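Entry for the shared binder. Reason: the reviewer on the internal report wants the predicted structure included alongside the sequence.
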Amino acid sequence: MRDNDSIQAPDLSRRGFLQGTLLGTLSLAVGANGVIGVIGLAHADDDAPKKYGADSMPGGTVSDPLVFVSIGADGTVTIVAHRAEMGTGVRTSLPMVVADEMEANWDRVKVVQAEANETRYGNQNVDGSRSVRHFLMPMRRVGAAARQMLEAAAAARWAVPVGEVRAQRHEVVHLPTGRRLPYGELAADAAKQPVPAEGTLKLKTPDQFRYIGKDRVRMVDLEAIGKGQATYGMDVRLPNMVYAVVARPPVVGGKARAVRAEKALAVPGVLKVVEIPPFSGAPAFQPLGGVAVVARNTWAAMQGRAALEIDWDDGPNAGYDSAAYRRTLEVAARKPGKVVRNEGDAPAAWNNSAEAERYAAEYYVPHLAHASMEPPVATVRVSGKSAEVWTSIQNPVAAQTAVAKRLKLEPKDVRVNVLLLGGGFGRKSKPDFVDEAAIVAQAMPRTPVKLVWTREDDIHHDYLHTVSVERIEAVVGKDGRPQTWLHRSAAPTIGSLFTQGAKGQQLFESGMSAINMPYRIPNVRVETAEVEAHARIGWFRSVANIPHAFAAQCFIAELAHRAGKDHKQFALDLIGPARKIDPRTMADTWNYTESPERYPYDTGRLRDVIEAAARGARWGRKLPRGHGLGLAFCYSFMSYTATVVEVAVNDKGEVQVVAVDMAMDCGPQINPERIRAQMEGGAIMGLSLALTSEISFEKGRVKQSNFHDYEVLRHHASPRVIRTHLVNGSHDTPPGGVGEPPVPPVAPALCNAIFAATGKRIRSLPVRTVA
């Protein structure tokens, strides 16, 4: 990569943008509230529905500007991707929506990656499966506006009514005469046309779509990725670049008492040793601290780090032991906790029932590491009163903010070039590794510093998925149906990142498959235990849905077996007929910042995905000895998913996943190929978490170090077949998320299948073998 190879967005000035012209091109932007050509900015946040109301969020969006599209004189349509690509296909899916609405030919579309710029692009944080959910309608609007302005320009040039012209396949046609003008010839004239007002904007109908909902769109980065030509953070090469690795405290909250660097500095190629201060207060996105070794190449830096002599003070988490902590969580889950949902009186029903009518179970999910294929990496160059960053980051604005604060610069003086991500899963929304690189680069003025995390660094120092004990208690009637549902969750909270000493899950965490329980049960209570965090707890693909759905979906299967009923039918009977539940009847707010009016809990859609997954797996068929089918389902990130897993368990207790059937209803299916790809990836990741993955602690230290002991699913253990079933797809339904929803049902479906095959219940992950 050359020094000037960084990807950047078109430099659209405020004045030039508002005039709609830039060097003879048509250039447009649109806010998510549908207003085209206005740079009024309101950022997405957890209070968006309260602040802006449902009417300001068409298509389930929040008020996040800005989306840019331009047409050059040569007919090239340039679309700015303002969110990072980490395998979800967002650099294809959103631009193709614009291209479809404006009748552009995909082979004439150029996609450029936006740098970090919150003023220009609004929220750029790729998390929460929000990208299509929040930007489908803005992208459609800006595309439709461009199409109508091109049509108006052609009509004016021909002096004909605009109703006689139509944009078709990158040109405008005069229908009565067949005359044609290509987009490039019309771009300058179109830029002089007024931007269509909201009431005059004409969106396509679904039957007119050329790309939306189709499988024939070429993925923007596919060829470059396939040829090894794509640029990830690890690929950055700049003139005079040096390399750095960091020796970090082995225990979170620890620090170096004394550092002896003489041997490290004597290693050939080592240039400098830079101390990184420990974080203070809550961890947030601060570096852990430690000592960086800078060298002419990564190998020399690693050898220098190995030669450092550091006396560590392990700090307040020195005694953290995950086995002992599990017992702490189990005790907490058996006691009353903070109530986050309460209907009827579940505790009283439990205490007053006969012993034979009670049923309870506890479920355990350990800490999990993100373990994305590309570990964290960032390159930073500090030059006087400015800095430039090249990195693979989910949250570029957070990286920009962190570097600006560290270097005492204005954010506008820190340029963050966003590169492709080799996986993220939530880890790369936390820019601690970029901040580390900035600290080292400050000590190496005008020299690009590439700071690399090894796989061991990544496993040892991750922002981990929370460890959890989930306890569910039910009083069961004579018909086998639960009369009470008491769910207690004991898990450290993500809130501990930002508030020192924060205990117990926050409402948004409880709202992930604990509060939002769809069954018709008269007495429902959900509680959380106030337990401390002893590690950095962070967002992880599907977040708290993983432990909550694991417990709830296994428990329903156990109740069905106890009642002597088919699991699928038992669950459907408990869900009841199709109805739309107002989320606010479950708790004050848990709907992940979305409008409760636009996104009710639709049990009809949930029923449909259950039926689709079961139909795909041929639920109820006779299976060979040692085989079993298991079902689980979940509503998360405004989408509905259901999974059926078929397993074969041999006489040694070894589990082989035979097949996975996954059904999803995410509303309108913008890019079906990418949806299926994310479902398949979610199946593999979910199986990996269920079968092999675990982070454990001893004396405050992570015991695992690489893929030999923090295992991800190997090829031989992967299912022979993954079948995906897309349900609904109606454009009358607001869009849901896709990246995260496939994961939560996989582990409980697997464990339910193991029980069907062997009669043995699995309540603790990972499974590994069936004893």
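Summary line for the report: The longest strand covers residues 639-649.
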